[in-house]
Predict the structure.
Amino acid sequence: MGVRLDSAAKYLCEKSGWSLSNLELQKLLYLAQVEHAFRNDGAPLVETAFQAWDYGPVVPALYRRLRMFGANPVRDVFRDARRIRAGSPSEISLRATWEQFGSVEPGELIEVSHWDKGAWAARYEPGVREIGITQRDIAAEARNRAVHADEWRRSAA
Protein backbone atom coordinates (compact mmCIF):
# COMPACT_ATOMS: atom_id res chain seq x y z
CA MET A 1 0.00 0.00 0.00
CA GLY A 2 1.38 3.35 -1.04
CA VAL A 3 1.18 6.80 0.45
CA ARG A 4 -0.57 10.00 -0.44
CA LEU A 5 1.13 12.23 -3.00
CA ASP A 6 1.31 15.21 -0.61
CA SER A 7 2.92 13.00 2.04
CA ALA A 8 5.63 11.78 -0.35
CA ALA A 9 6.21 15.32 -1.62
CA LYS A 10 6.53 16.72 1.89
CA TYR A 11 8.92 13.92 2.89
CA LEU A 12 11.29 14.81 0.03
CA CYS A 13 10.98 18.55 0.63
CA GLU A 14 11.79 18.08 4.31
CA LYS A 15 14.82 15.91 3.41
CA SER A 16 16.06 18.75 1.21
CA GLY A 17 15.60 21.40 3.89
CA TRP A 18 12.88 22.88 1.66
CA SER A 19 15.34 23.63 -1.15
CA LEU A 20 13.67 21.68 -3.99
CA SER A 21 12.08 23.38 -6.98
CA ASN A 22 8.88 22.07 -8.54
CA LEU A 23 10.95 20.49 -11.32
CA GLU A 24 13.31 18.74 -8.90
CA LEU A 25 10.43 17.50 -6.76
CA GLN A 26 8.59 16.12 -9.79
CA LYS A 27 11.64 14.18 -10.96
CA LEU A 28 12.43 12.83 -7.47
CA LEU A 29 8.83 11.70 -7.00
CA TYR A 30 8.96 9.89 -10.32
CA LEU A 31 12.27 8.22 -9.47
CA ALA A 32 10.80 7.22 -6.10
CA GLN A 33 7.80 5.72 -7.92
CA VAL A 34 10.18 3.63 -10.05
CA GLU A 35 12.27 2.70 -6.99
CA HIS A 36 9.18 1.58 -5.13
CA ALA A 37 7.99 -0.49 -8.10
CA PHE A 38 11.45 -2.08 -8.25
CA ARG A 39 11.41 -3.00 -4.56
CA ASN A 40 7.72 -3.98 -4.33
CA ASP A 41 6.77 -6.12 -7.34
CA GLY A 42 5.56 -3.21 -9.46
CA ALA A 43 3.38 -1.61 -6.78
CA PRO A 44 3.02 2.19 -6.87
CA LEU A 45 4.45 4.44 -4.16
CA VAL A 46 1.69 6.97 -4.80
CA GLU A 47 -1.64 6.40 -6.52
CA THR A 48 -1.31 9.14 -9.09
CA ALA A 49 -0.89 9.60 -12.81
CA PHE A 50 2.39 10.83 -14.25
CA GLN A 51 2.51 12.34 -17.72
CA ALA A 52 5.37 12.51 -20.24
CA TRP A 53 6.18 16.22 -20.55
CA ASP A 54 9.15 17.82 -22.32
CA TYR A 55 11.32 17.99 -19.20
CA GLY A 56 10.38 14.53 -17.99
CA PRO A 57 7.61 12.91 -15.97
CA VAL A 58 5.18 15.25 -14.22
CA VAL A 59 2.13 14.89 -11.99
CA PRO A 60 -0.04 17.65 -13.53
CA ALA A 61 -2.12 18.33 -10.39
CA LEU A 62 1.03 18.75 -8.30
CA TYR A 63 2.61 20.91 -10.99
CA ARG A 64 -0.39 23.25 -10.96
CA ARG A 65 -0.34 23.39 -7.16
CA LEU A 66 3.36 24.34 -7.09
CA ARG A 67 3.80 26.46 -10.22
CA MET A 68 3.47 29.65 -8.19
CA PHE A 69 7.00 28.96 -6.90
CA GLY A 70 8.48 29.00 -10.42
CA ALA A 71 12.11 27.85 -10.24
CA ASN A 72 12.31 28.83 -6.56
CA PRO A 73 12.18 26.32 -3.71
CA VAL A 74 8.77 24.89 -2.90
CA ARG A 75 7.41 25.97 0.47
CA ASP A 76 5.24 23.88 2.76
CA VAL A 77 1.84 23.86 1.10
CA PHE A 78 1.28 20.26 2.24
CA ARG A 79 -0.72 21.06 5.37
CA ASP A 80 -2.82 17.87 5.26
CA ALA A 81 0.12 15.54 4.55
CA ARG A 82 0.52 12.57 6.84
CA ARG A 83 3.81 11.41 8.30
CA ILE A 84 5.30 8.42 6.56
CA ARG A 85 6.12 5.67 9.01
CA ALA A 86 9.87 5.16 9.42
CA GLY A 87 11.00 1.83 8.04
CA SER A 88 7.84 1.30 5.99
CA PRO A 89 8.27 0.16 2.38
CA SER A 90 7.25 3.65 1.23
CA GLU A 91 9.77 5.37 3.48
CA ILE A 92 12.51 2.95 2.39
CA SER A 93 11.84 3.75 -1.28
CA LEU A 94 11.74 7.50 -0.66
CA ARG A 95 14.91 7.41 1.45
CA ALA A 96 16.75 5.31 -1.16
CA THR A 97 15.74 7.77 -3.88
CA TRP A 98 16.84 10.72 -1.77
CA GLU A 99 20.18 9.10 -0.97
CA GLN A 100 20.87 8.38 -4.64
CA PHE A 101 19.49 11.53 -6.25
CA GLY A 102 19.02 14.18 -3.56
CA SER A 103 22.21 16.05 -4.46
CA VAL A 104 21.85 15.70 -8.23
CA GLU A 105 21.49 18.91 -10.26
CA PRO A 106 18.12 19.56 -11.97
CA GLY A 107 19.50 19.01 -15.48
CA GLU A 108 20.91 15.66 -14.45
CA LEU A 109 17.56 14.65 -12.90
CA ILE A 110 15.95 15.37 -16.25
CA GLU A 111 18.54 13.20 -18.00
CA VAL A 112 18.00 10.33 -15.55
CA SER A 113 14.23 10.52 -16.02
CA HIS A 114 14.78 10.46 -19.82
CA TRP A 115 16.59 7.09 -19.73
CA ASP A 116 16.06 5.47 -23.13
CA LYS A 117 14.77 2.22 -21.60
CA GLY A 118 12.45 4.04 -19.23
CA ALA A 119 8.75 4.78 -19.15
CA TRP A 120 9.09 8.44 -20.13
CA ALA A 121 11.06 7.55 -23.28
CA ALA A 122 8.48 4.91 -24.20
CA ARG A 123 5.58 7.40 -24.00
CA TYR A 124 7.01 10.84 -24.82
CA GLU A 125 5.99 12.59 -28.03
CA PRO A 126 7.54 16.05 -28.58
CA GLY A 127 5.07 18.87 -28.15
CA VAL A 128 2.21 16.60 -27.10
CA ARG A 129 0.72 17.03 -23.63
CA GLU A 130 -1.38 14.74 -21.50
CA ILE A 131 0.34 11.50 -22.52
CA GLY A 132 -0.04 9.24 -19.53
CA ILE A 133 2.70 7.10 -18.07
CA THR A 134 0.97 4.09 -16.57
CA GLN A 135 2.05 2.13 -13.52
CA ARG A 136 2.61 -0.77 -15.91
CA ASP A 137 5.11 1.45 -17.81
CA ILE A 138 6.82 2.36 -14.53
CA ALA A 139 7.00 -1.28 -13.44
CA ALA A 140 8.57 -2.13 -16.82
CA GLU A 141 11.18 0.59 -16.23
CA ALA A 142 11.90 -0.92 -12.82
CA ARG A 143 12.43 -4.33 -14.44
CA ASN A 144 14.63 -2.74 -17.11
CA ARG A 145 16.81 -1.30 -14.37
CA ALA A 146 17.55 -4.84 -13.21
CA VAL A 147 18.06 -6.28 -16.70
CA HIS A 148 20.26 -3.36 -17.79
CA ALA A 149 21.81 -2.66 -14.38
CA ASP A 150 25.24 -1.59 -15.68
CA GLU A 151 23.73 0.81 -18.21
CA TRP A 152 21.27 2.13 -15.61
CA ARG A 153 24.05 2.81 -13.09
CA ARG A 154 26.05 4.71 -15.73
CA SER A 155 23.05 6.86 -16.66
CA ALA A 156 22.21 7.52 -13.00
CA ALA A 157 25.81 8.29 -11.98
In short: The two ends are 30 Å apart (CA to CA). The first helix runs from residue 5 to 15.
